[in-house]
Specification:
Elements lengths: L2 H13 L6 E5 H15 L4 E4 L6 H8 L4 E6 L2 H9 L5 E3 L6 H8 L2 H6 E5 L2 H9 L8 E6 L4 E3 L4 E3 L9 H12 L4 E8 L2 H4 L9 H32 L5 E4 L5 H5 L6 E4 L1 H4 L16 E12 L2 E5 L16 E4 L4 E2 L9 E5 L11 E5 L12 E6 L2 E7 L10
Parallel strand pairs: 1-18, 2-3, 2-11, 3-4, 4-5, 5-6, 6-9, 9-10, 10-11
Antiparallel strand pairs: 1-12, 7-8, 12-13, 12-17, 13-16, 14-17, 15-16, 18-19
Helix pairs in contact: 8-10
Length: 400
């Protein structure tokens, strides 16, 4: 029996009393992945990206481990909810226009001490001030640096379109603007190199593309390391007591951690290891989060149909955004149908061994988005379900 076949047998035994569709997290794999992130971070703390987990119980589990400190959240409403729930170090990774949330933040000393907001434009400060409604708590601010690699005099850009702040002078000028403004304090810098951390460099069947990605990422890492260090020096001249410099992501942990200017690493997807992280040469993890769909039809030889399955991930549409049939091995989508809203046909010889009511196990393309489809995660240890915990959705929280 292969290791994957053994995993399938364990998952089937563990969840036999439960009705599918369902989602699980294999705790042995989850914990092993957490250990690997800490190892790659080389002694620098790992801040957990909550959008890649979306389950309070698992956030608490990983933060209880050595090597992890703090949460990187994705909306202001989520940040405030986590802070009220006892998380005392929450960095909001994206700017917000949530006026009610800012009013709550500025009016509550506990929340203001726990939550740091993201800023890359003075207009965002104006919005926060206009939202205060009497609250005068000092708002903790993190400045975001644009990490994109610019080539040919800026005519070619590689990287996500996030912050407009690219140069050390631009980031330092915003730091001065924040420092001059009552009610705000700069405490950190964030620079997420998504074109390095979030792009696989070993795509199966695409050797030329994979080599091009590796060359791009090598150049991007060198350029960003120099620029990030210069940005930190420039900002520390304005804010000598800067608390943190955050960088990286699951795919770049060890590279970003090697930079002296960086004080902490952000990562989250590496805990679940969704399918998009199969295409990296820098690390390998164990798939920890899966979902099971029941076989409900057998249309013919080499075909089964499962209930549900249309759970695409965000990003540019493409086959790589679909969940992948994982267990049993050898199943594939019908190219005429793909993953369906209500049912999904699957092709391949393993279909002939599946009976009505059997389960097919899938891996989602991305990490935390899986939790928007399920109310609960069943936590598997060995071949038993050790606990069942709510996702954000199961707690009635849909932040985006």
């Amino acid at each position: 029996m292969t290791a994957r076949a053994a995993d399938r047998a364990r998952y089937d035994r563990a969840t036999a009393p439960l009705e599918a569709p369902l989602a699980i997290v294999d705790l042995d794999a989850f914990d092993a992945n957490a250990d690997d992130l800490v190892r790659r971070a080389g002694g620098k703390p790992v801040r957990v990206a909550s959008k890649s987990v979306r389950c309070r119980a698992l956030l608490e589990r990983v933060l209880a481990r050595d090597g992890f400190a703090g949460v990187m959240s994705f909306t202001l409403a989520e940040s405030l909810w986590l802070a009220r729930s006892g998380f005392d170090d929450v960095l909001l990774a994206y700017p917000s226009a949530d006026r009610a949330g800012y009013a709550e933040l500025a009016g509550d000393p506990k929340l203001a001490a726990a939550v740091t907001v993201m800023v890359d434009d003075p207009a965002q400060l104006d919005l926060i001030d206009a939202s205060r409604t009497g609250g005068d708590e000092v708002v903790r601010v993190c400045l975001e640096l644009d990490t994109a690699l610019r080539l040919l005099g800026g005519r070619v850009r590689v990287g996500a379109r996030r912050s407009p702040l690219h140069s050390p002078a631009e980031v330092a000028e915003l730091a001065r603007a924040v420092s001059r403004r009552p009610g705000f304090r700069v405490v950190g810098i964030m620079a997420y190199e998504g074109h390095v951390a979030g792009v696989g460099d070993a795509v199966a069947g695409r050797p030329l593309r994979s080599r091009a990605v590796r060359l791009m990422q090598s150049a991007a890492r060198r350029e960003l390391a120099e620029r990030r260090a210069a940005v930190v020096r420039a900002v520390r001249e304005v804010v000598p007591d800067l608390e943190f410099v955050n960088g990286g992501g699951t795919g770049s942990v060890q590279h970003t951690a090697a930079e002296d200017a960086v004080t902490e690493i952000a990562a989250g997807s590496g805990l679940y290891v969704p399918r998009l992280f199969d295409n990296y040469t820098s690390f390998s993890g164990r798939p920890a989060a899966l979902f099971a769909l029941p076989v409900v039809r057998r249309p013919g030889v080499g075909v089964v149909t499962v209930l549900g399955g249309g759970y695409p991930a965000s990003g540019a549409p493409g086959a790589d955004r679909l969940p992948v049939p994982y267990l049993p091995e050898g199943l594939r989508y019908d190219p005429q149908e793909g993953a369906g809203e209500v049912q999904t046909p699957l092709l391949g010889s393993p279909a002939d061994d599946l009976l009505i009511g059997d389960r097919v196990w899938f891996r989602h393309a991305k990490a935390g988005e899986l939790c928007e489809r399920f109310d609960a995660l069943h936590l598997v240890e060995g071949d038993t379900v050790a606990a069942t915990v709510p996702t954000y959705r199961g707690e009635g929280r849909a932040f985006l």
